[in-house]
Design brief:
heterodimer; A: 369 residues; mainly alpha; ABC transporter involved in vitamin B12 uptake, BtuC; 15 helices; 0% strand; B: 510 residues; alpha/beta; Rossmann fold; 6-stranded mixed beta sheet
Chain lengths: 369, 510
């Protein structure tokens, strides 16, 4: 028998963890002499109180859904891909090269091409560590971390040596052609007559992220390949017995994982910046790890966790803007959420499990007596 | 009656909703061998773990030599004079015998005095109980039977006078088991009290004075061994009448299905595990491969199952199989009509976190009948699983239950249903009833015989000699990567097979 009902596993435990993180955050805010209730108010108002706030929250959430999915699919194959940051960075390069390659007439043509470019570059950046893991046994945690730094250095080099137009001061690529501009949520909702703030960069990539979540779900739970990925992740000896090739699964999973991370660049590079800038990923690759952990590596969980982290980033920015609470504290709050939902998962899980099994035992014992 | 060496009163222990021990009372007389028998999951190990301080009982009392004792941890158990010999030895392989014996019982900060003291004590123990060992031998160089002797010495060194042995003969050859029983007999003469946990009826009958039977967490009976019979004990264990012998007609072997010629396997460490063996399995017969665990049988099964490379030749249905691993894997073997029930079902045969229906498709998940376009047809797999669960009497018949939540016997039935129902030409089956309760053993044996009667070839690998003898139509014995010889089950006996399993040909032994 499973230790507790499914709803407790997917909802109750993350909620308790979140609550604990919130309480601890409140204590920290109190300690620096600010009012935690007021602070929460600013965060909620700033992130969810207007279509402007929602726009930013969803924009960040889009990033986190992509990177969260990337980490999650690798988790299913028992691979810890910490390289989302680097893969998304390379994805940005792919997107930029595609967008700059042609004078795109319309985004409907540019988007599919950029999707291929971003995914291919992200996948390529994951493929090298994957190959080293599959064939040489180099641990993927180590190699993906190292590849993050190689990616950062590579992008800086390319921005300054080739991508930066001559005569420009800032190290960024040239602006993408008008035809490569993605429709924003404001424009899309205007078609159906719903007013939405014009300022935030949230764009059609949000729907691409939702589609990717659905696709990952379909792949993992409805295809023989997904079955093999999950089986391999649960038990490598059983996988070998069933004729599942470890090399094949490691390579395919990491290609998909890197591709998903690379797709994040559609949102940031193509949707928001409309040119390639340095550090376009802004930690979304790392936050993806927390999102995948909190979402229990399930696409639905990742959508929810992605939204939560979008809220934290946007709400945190507003908090720093309106109060004297420093931005560093926002990072503390995010860290607490990650700590409680990811690292300290068992701290909450074990008592809750014990509670449920005691209750079940009591329920069982009563009718017998 | 003298004061009991151990008396348990009303011991209960629950793990979540599972009541592992229910109000168990037992009294063990000093200087006797007390057997505890029961199926897997009957609660034997839990009870002994409580006695050894690994678990705390929810209710009940423990009396050692008439004294009420609380045993919160294994230190307390050792202090109370209880020693435990585990099924899987807890020895440091690259330490010497002496170092292993003092490990955890060193006195003082320096090793030398401890070692010297141990050496002296070890000699006394060896003289008292006939347990001679070389104190300076490295454990890794010793045979399994010898290693077990060190475990017993470890307990005696800690001044145990109550010894608990958990399934001690699982890894021993018949000869080694006899030797162990002689040692236990000697210990009993010296006044030690021994608790022997086993699921083998023969051992109980051979050596114990008293036997307690456990079933589903309860102690169902405690009887004098002399006043009972294997049949009665089996019934007490299972709770109904059981057939201890396999009912089967003589085999009618047909053409060879599998031919193995000069097969050699080198493992990942570069050690040759299978050293040029040749045999064949015919349609409609069961070839039993006997041998102590670790003599190359596992590697052989992995090669035949398609996930270990080898050299030599294997011909299946008159077609040679690729042995390099480059052009074949588990899936291509299945396509050739080889089904495989692996030795370790929890590690290889099943994915314990997957639901029963997912495990039913495991290995066959790319079959067209399980697919709808590019997607898996999960509804059809689930329906298929329901049918299989019914035919193989898997309990509970719930396809959505995770594999880990089934008992050992029912897990094995899931694997067996998956492999047999594909109508294979050859069934490889390793340790078919390891960790399986008696009721399910009967069923599994019937299924294997039924498959043979359909004209299929079966290669049975088992370390249980009883199983080999009662199921096989031909018996081959493996030792150290070689096949020591082949025998007809009706023209051999356990003694002869036991010698072969120990690497001795009967001619050489005489």
């Amino acid at each position: 028998m499973d230790k507790m009902p499914r709803w407790a596993d997917v909802l109750l435990i993350p909620l308790i963890s979140l609550l604990l993180a919130a309480i601890l955050s409140a204590l920290v805010i109190l300690a620096i002499g600010e009012n935690p209730v007021e602070a929460l108010g600013y965060m909620v108002e700033g992130a969810l109180g207007s279509t402007y706030g929602w726009g930013y929250t969803l924009y960040y959430a889009t990033n986190f859904i992509f990177t969260g999915l990337a980490v999650a699919i690798a988790f299913h194959a028992s691979l810890f891909n910490i390289g989302g940051e680097g893969q998304a960075t390379l994805g940005g390069l792919g997107v930029a090269l595609v967008c700059l390659a042609l004078p795109w007439p319309h985004w409907t043509l540019a988007l599919p091409a950029a999707v291929i470019g971003g995914a291919a570059f992200g996948a390529f950046w994951a493929a090298i560590p994957a190959y080293l893991q599959a064939k040489r046994g180099s641990h993927i945690v180590i190699t993906t971390i190292m590849f993050n730094y190689i990616a950062f250095a590579l992008i800086i080099y390319l921005l300054n040596n080739g991508l930066k137009p001559i005569g420009q001061m800032e190290s960024s690529s040239a602006r993408f052609p008008e035809g490569a501009a993605l429709p924003t949520l404001h424009e899309m909702l205007a078609v159906v007559g719903i007013p939405f703030s014009k300022a935030p960069p949230v764009n059609i990539s949000l729907f691409l992220a939702l589609a990717a979540a659905w696709g990952v779900w379909l792949l993992l739970w409805r295809t023989p390949l997904g079955f093999e990925i999950r089986a391999f992740g649960k038990s490598e000896p059983a996988g070998r017995y069933a004729g599942i090739s470890p090399t094949k699964i490691i390579m395919i999973t990491m290609l998909i994982s890197g591709g998903l991370a690379g797709l994040m660049a559609i949102n940031t590079v193509m949707g928001e910046a409309e040119r390639l800038v340095n550090n376009s990923v802004q930690n979304a690759g790392f936050i993806g790890i927390a999102v995948a952990l909190m979402g229990r590596s399930h696409p639905v969980g990742i959508l929810i966790a992605g939204l939560l982290f979008g809220f934290l980033v946007q709400g945190g920015a507003e908090l720093a803007f309106w109060t004297s609470i420093p931005t560093e504290l926002i990072i503390v709050i995010q860290a607490l959420v990650i700590l409680f939902t990811g690292a300290l998962d068992n701290m909450v899980r074990m008592p809750v499990e014990a509670l449920f099994s005691r209750r079940r035992l009591a329920a069982k014992a009563t009718p017998a007596e | 009656m003298s004061t009991a060496a151990i008396e348990l009163k009303g011991i209960s222990k629950a793990f979540g909703p599972v009541q592992a021990n229910k109000d168990i009372s037992i009294s063990v007389q000093p200087g006797t061998i007390h057997g505890i028998i029961g199926e897997n999951g009957a609660g034997k190990s839990t009870l002994m773990s409580i006695l050894y301080g690994f678990y705390k009982a929810d209710a009940g009392e423990i009396f050692i030599r008439g004294q009420k004792t609380s045993i919160p941890d294994s230190q307390a158990a050792i202090a109370a004079g209880i020693g435990m010999v585990f099924q899987h030895f807890k020895l440091v392989e690259n330490f010497t015998v002496l170092e292993n014996i003092i490990l955890g019982a060193e006195d003082g900060g320096f090793l030398k005095p401890s070692l010297a003291k141990a050496r002296k004590l070890l000699k006394e123990l060896a003289d008292d109980y006939g347990l001679s060992v070389d104190p300076d031998a490295k454990v890794e160089a010793l045979s399994v039977g010898y290693q077990q002797r060190i475990e017993i010495l470890k307990a005696l060194y800690r001044q145990a006078d109550i010894l608990i042995l958990d399934e001690p003969t699982g890894v021993l050859t018949p000869a080694e088991a006899d030797q162990l029983f002689r040692i236990l007999g000697r210990l009993r003469e010296e006044g030690k009290t021994i608790i022997l946990i086993t699921h083998k009826l023969r051992e109980i009958m051979d050596i114990t004075d008293t036997v307690s039977v456990m079933r589903r967490g309860e102690m169902t009976a405690t009887v004098k061994t002399a006043a009972t019979s294997p049949t009665e004990l089996a019934e007490l264990m299972v709770g109904r009448k059981v057939l201890l012998r396999v009912d089967k007609k003589p085999a009618t072997p047909g053409a060879p299905v599998l031919k193995v010629d000069n097969l050699r396997v080198v493992d990942n460490k570069g050690v040759e595990r299978v050293k040029g063996i040749s045999f064949e399995v015919r349609a409609g017969e069961i070839l039993g491969l006997a041998g102590v665990a670790g003599n190359g049988q596992s590697e052989l099964l992995e090669v035949l199952g398609g996930y270990r490379a080898a050299t030599g030749q294997i011909v299946m249905n008159n077609e040679e199989i690729d042995l390099t691993g480059a052009k074949s894997d588990g899936q291509s073997r299945r396509a050739r009509g080889i089904a495989h029930v692996p030795e370790d079902r929890q590690r290889e045969g099943l994915i314990m976190d997957f639901m029963a229906w997912e495990n039913t498709a495991f290995g066959y998940h790319k079959d067209n009948r399980y697919k709808k376009g590019v997607l898996s047809d999960n509804a059809s797999i689930r329906g298929d699983t329901e049918e299989k669960m019914e035919r193989f009497d898997v309990r509970p018949p719930n396809p959505k239950l995770s594999a880990k939540n089934f008992s050992g016997g029912n897990q094995q039935k899931i694997v067996l249903a998956r492999e047999i129902e594909r109508n294979p030409d050859l069934l490889l089956i390793g340790q078919p009833t390891r960790g399986v309760d008696i009721g399910a053993i009967e069923f599994i044996h019937q299924q294997i015989v039924a498959l043979r009667d359909q004209g299929k070839a079966i290669l049975l690998v088992s370390v249980e000699l009883d199983e080999i003898m009662s199921l096989s139509d031909r018996i081959a014995v493996m030792f150290d990567g070689h096949i020591m010889g082949e025998r007809q089950p009706d023209q051999t006996d356990e003694k002869e097979l036991g010698l072969l399993m120990a690497g001795l040909t009967p001619e050489a032994a005489e």
